[in-house]
């Protein structure tokens, strides 16, 4: 059904870098070829249902500020209206993908049976709005953190009934994702962690979480879902400590439970910062371990220390993120999901459009800078030069020997290494040339 929500806003088009039209793209040019692929196919933008349509503008100190025609989200008629508006926004922006939690799509009726029926109903409705050349589902996921039943965890809950409820919930969301041709399935464990160690059995909770993820992987094969299962690292918030702390922790967890070849990572900018890392670090580490799946693009407020989920606005950070993604050959099933929300004073429909326009442009700028750096090859050349000695026979001999033999070698050859410059500032200046 056609809605009135975006009345007066025209489809956003690429007008080039000199454009002063705030509702135009200055950098995002979907058909432009970037490293052999259309820009749209490199970036694979997705809109997040939860921030753009379900979130009502509350914060820890205040309630809703957005009063949308589909609020309060307590019946199916409004759920359909929300979906209609969503598809109108995808069309205006030309975003090729979207993502959802079950709870973003349908009202919560407080029990599994009714929630299952309405999830099936609304995802059928969404399916009827999709077409082969229209927006696709990048990933679906289950919201197992908002309702009070999840307060002590989903798969890590001390109550086996909650584990079972979580299993049934994830099955329903995987089924819906599969039905809509989703390209990935995400698990983010906002409550998979603890508030206090005084009441927490760490090994039990971690084992149950590993068992749960194995069941998810088994179910993927059972239904023939071809997408990628992704876990999303975050160190805390809402839990004091979350088990999927960061990329390194997730990789260790997956290896412990034998899931490292089955599950990849969905890496979020703001979560990286919360973990005391940079986005670049988390992506580069995942790439180096062959674990990069997809990204949640946003930014935090660096002063507040919260996961503020703002739209990206920092070209240097974004450029280095895409430098590593492109260096790994680009996204396979993953993409760039805007896990980002408006500030709660940005009330107008045009704010929602402008936020995405700016974010898409920032990403396009970053992507083009990354392409230019890769084509120029300066960073790669420096890397090759810095590690070149490791391909020499003497170095391979060192790696293949033991500490006794190495000591003998150092003594015999009087090895006395001379430090070499890392040239960091030269490299930083080099990167700045492309930004
Ligand atoms: C929360 C967050 C989630 C996940 C999906 O910080 O990032 O929106 O991306 O559950
Ligand atoms: Co996220």
Q: Can you give a write-up of this model?
A:
With 435 residues, the chain is an alpha/beta fold. It has 2 domains: 33-376, Divalent-metal-dependent TIM barrel enzymes (TIM Barrel); 390-432, no CATH class. It is 45% helix and 11% strand. It is built from 16 helices and 12 strands. Strands 3-4-5-6-8-10-11-12 form an 8-stranded parallel barrel, surrounded by 5 helices. The chain has a two-stranded antiparallel sheet with strand order 1-2. Helix 6 (160-179) runs parallel beside helix 7 and helix 11 crosses helix 12 (349-376). The longest helix has 28 residues, at 349-376. The model has no long low-confidence stretch (mean pLDDT 98).
Please give a handful of descriptors for the protein shown:
435 residues; alpha/beta; TIM Barrel; 2 domains; eight-stranded parallel barrel; two-stranded antiparallel ribbon; 45% helix; globular; binds D-xylulose; binds cobalt (II) ion
Quick overview:
By secondary structure, this protein is an alpha/beta fold. It contains 16 helices and twelve strands. Helix 3 packs parallel to helix 5 (112-129) and helix 5 (112-129) runs parallel beside helix 6 (160-179).
Could you tell me how far the N terminus lies from the C terminus, measured between alpha carbons in angstroms? Answer: 43 Å
The CATH superfamily of the largest domain is identified as Divalent-metal-dependent TIM barrel enzymes
Instruction: Enter the CATH topology name of the largest domain.
Output: TIM Barrel
CATH architecture of the largest domain: Alpha-Beta Barrel
The neighbouring-strand order within the major sheet is 3-4-5-6-8-10-11-12
Structure class: alpha/beta
Instruction: Supply the number of helical segments.
Output: 16
Biggest beta sheet summary: 8 strands, parallel, barrel
Number of strands: 12
Can you tell me the number of structural domains? 2
Please mark out the parts with pLDDT under 50 across 5 or more consecutive residues, or reply none. none
Mean pLDDT: 98
Helix content: 40-55%
